[in-house]
Amino acid sequence: MTPEERFERIERHVEFLAENQAGLTASVGSLKQDLVELARIVQQHVVSSETRFQMVAERFEMVTGQFERVDEAMESL
After folding, report:
1. Radius of gyration of the CA atoms of the chain, in A
2. pTM for this entry
3. What is the dihedral of CA 62, 67, 69, 75, to 10 degrees?
4. Cα–Cα distances in angstroms (integers) from residue 28 to residues 19, 21, 35, in the given order
5. DSSP secondary structure letter of residue 1
6. Which residues contact 1 (CB under 8 A, 6 or more apart)?
7. Complete DSSP assignment for 48-73
8. Which of 10, 33, 66, 75 is spaced 20 to 30 A from 25 at the CA atom?
């Protein structure tokens, strides 16, 4: 292999690697956007779940209060 052929071969490899790097860079950008969107969705679900848990806790407190009043009424009989 002559030095010119070797240089051309190396040049083709460098071009190939540059194209691959460009593709990977584009993929990373797309994945980063996907992760940002996923983080937003997860945050929404966390807030929604927290709200639901608070509602359930309030219902349990209400039921507990009702049971206590029933117990007091039963004891007074």
Report:
1. 33
2. 0.61
3. -170
4. 14, 10, 10
5. -
6. 9
7. HHHHHHHHHHHHHHHHHHHHHHHHHH
8. 10
How many residues are given for the chain?
Answer: 77
Question: In this structure, what token pair is assigned to residue 47?
Answer: 């807030």
| Interval 40-66: pLDDT, tens | 999 999 999 999 999 999 999 999 999
DSSP tag of 2: -
Instruction: Name the strand (E) or helix (H) holding 77.
Output: none
- As a whole number of angstroms, the distance between CA 30 and CA 37 comes to 11
Query: What amino acid is encoded at 6 in this protein?
Result: R
Reading the block at residue 26, the tokens are 């584009």
